[in-house]
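Field: COMPLEX_INPUT
Field: COMPONENT_COUNT = two
Field: RESIDUE_TOTAL = 905
Field: MODE = joint
Values follow.
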Amino acid sequence: MSEIKIEKINAIWLQGQGCTGCTVSLTGATHPSLPDLLTGFLPQAAGVALVFHPTIMLPHGEEAINVLESGLKGKLDPFVLILEGAIPNEELAEKTGGYWCMVGENGEGKPLTLNYWVDKLSERAAAVVAVGTCACYGGIPHGKPNPTGSKGLLSYLGRNWRSKLNLPVICIPGCPAQGEHVAEVLAHLVLTARGFLPIPELDEFHRPKFIFKATAHENCPRAGFFAEGKYSEEFGEPYCMGLLGCKGPIVHCDVPKRGFVEGVGGCTTVGSICIGCTEPEFPDEPLSPFFKKAPPGVFVSETFGDIKGKLYALLHRLKSRKI
Amino acid sequence: MVEEKMKNEVLIEPLTRIEGHLAIHAVPDLETKKYKNAHSYAVMFRGFEIILKNREPADAIWITQRICGVCPVPHAVASVETVDMTYKAPPTPFSIAVRNFVHLSEQLYDSPLGCGILEGPDYSEPVVKRFNPEWWSSAQETKAEHSDLHGYSTIADIMTALTPLSGSLWLKCLQISKLGRKMASLFGAKHPHVGTFVPGGVGKTITATDLEMFAGMLSQHIAFSKEFVPAFDDLLNFLIGIGYEEAGARAANLISYGSYEDPHSYNAKYEDMSKWGEKRKVTPGVVVNRNLITTDLVEINVGIREFITHSYYNEWDGREVERDPLGNEIAAEHPWNKETIPRPEPSKQWNGKYSWGTAPRWHDWKKHIDGGIYTLEAGPIARMWTTAQARKVPESTGNSLKFTLPKVTVVTGKVAEEMTFEWKIPEKVNAIERIRARAYYHAYSAYVAYNMLIEALEMVKKGEIEMWNKYRRPREGIGVGMIEAMRGGVAHWCIMKNGRIHRYQIITPTAWNESPRGPNNEPGPYEEAIIGTPITEAISSSLNGIDAARVVRSFDPCLACTVHVYNGKKKTVNEISPYFNL
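Field: COMPLEX_OUTPUT
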């Protein structure tokens, strides 16, 4: 049995222009759960300390800020920087002498902004993880007309940015991010850092493909009705929600399949429409107005795929039995 | 001199274990050992009311939930009711019951979250031992009165059980709060931020499976309530016993919008809002100096004012809505007339603008008292109070709310037998009673959910299971939606022109509570509650501010805000305290 080298890995969880929904969502993660992650559910995944999290930590005020400062001084290395919420453009606020998002004060009693901490801490971070669509791409705060000039980490730090471990910004979108998505990706990164797993493969928007490769439509339990041309025309009906505004075909998400809390829920699963909350454009076009049907091009390509599927099914039926 | 200044103020930024970004500035009086001044300020802005402009009103049902990931469903209810009214799209009775199920589920999650995870740790073993060691020795010697119900033999055992990550009550609260969110996801698709609420009803395909699953999960909450409420009762009674009742005390000036619609009364018509408002299972009302002065939701709406005297916004011009659909005059400071014009300014200008939060106030426009402008507090204590005093529901006695949870047998439950709860209007509105009301609201919500389930089953038997009323969207419209989140009343206002949002305004419960000074320089509820709060921590070279933080946390802040307490001096205490390892 190979020896497991236990290293302490610190996690600093900052909150910007967010709603704490991703944190709440993380408390719903089941396998692994939040306590699993923090108490070390496997020797390989042990040693993770959440040293800063505004919603659940015991200390407040100066003592809380001291943790971030010790991070700046390298005393928390190696650490993962996790951001929940978007990052505003503080230059806009400075024009009138103010701020959009403050996290603590400096020694002179001047506000320190979220941007200050993101800038400083990202320089030392072993990895940077954006949790939720706001932190990834700007989300709701960057919705038109984007009054505070919000951005997500992907454009704030840039697509070519690399962490101390040579990792790009890793995005776990969703509004909020599904709890297990967060727990799985964080656990995956711990295992990656210790050499037990390869680096997770990411898509063009830096989402781990093991979760975000397929579309909500491909993962939808109602896709069978779509294939048969059965559509819900009224809310409450059990068929495909495409006519009522579902954006599933253009959205990358597995929530329809896996549900939201312990397998329960899932947007299109229960009869809601998909509003595209895992996509960079959320909450603007082409995802809103939410009741507007998805762009027609999508349904054309879906239909071609469907015809192709029918033909293949027929051809495969003609083949001889395999086992 | 430096020493002097250091003790002169306490700044809590960030305030942790709350939702959002809030800061508290408190000035201690070291002779009387009380806080003598306080300022509460929100330190983050996103601009929802601006982002919502020109969108379809129905989009607001999804977007406004994102204001708060801790209490999204009340935003969904307020918003969907606003849009129901704006679109003239009344929902079906069964869909009203389903909206209630989602709303009730969130309250069942949010009460243990607030009491157990956010506020409870303030009274947990590590915090009490550090700041109030004398409480700890007394707690070890105090037997818990209801140990037969919850299993903890002393108060110290309850304090140990509230320790984050390891305490049994903390872990139970986390687990049961997750179950509440699972129940909300069952009918709402996901939680936070439910997906099924639509104008005219709910987009949920309902089957018998759903109702059975809901019943199964609800029974766990009913069993939990029978342990959880007595455990908090014992802890809170102990705190009263050691003299902590002055912490967070303020006058009983309260507001509630009421909650949980009656499926056969709500019709989304403003003209009938006074009637269906009073049919809610939680009664709307305004309390001034302990007296309930109204339960009329229309009167409550018309009396709402929003001031920005000390907030980072510019004044707005004009008064577009002069009268409501009933002909009542609508003031320029009413949200139907408000424009959100942000203007960031420096922090801590105590005589000028110092918060991103606004100052909601209530005008006694029918002159029940003196026609004045009142600073009101929202929260479970407010709505339990209005419901207990109003006698609009059978459980209301005029000075208490009395109800019985049914017998349930679940594997993990300690108490199977039915249990009667009585929440009595307290002597004082303070930190302790705010937490107690929050715990009792879990039991009351479980009770309402159980009865709502029985009512839904009756509807199923009668075949009344339509989920949605089709509507034709008008081009113009006006609406309001007022309901209760765990931390108090939340309301939305909408004016639609050309099928798009012309104006959308939101006042959250925390906006009422964390409000900065108002138009006459009068403090907001957090500020009032901190002023006069005794300082129980040992006063050495610096103050931690734990008592002020406890007071603010008792309101269960939800600002998408943070409070940091700091002592005006740059001093590194410990590099890493033992409590950071969370």
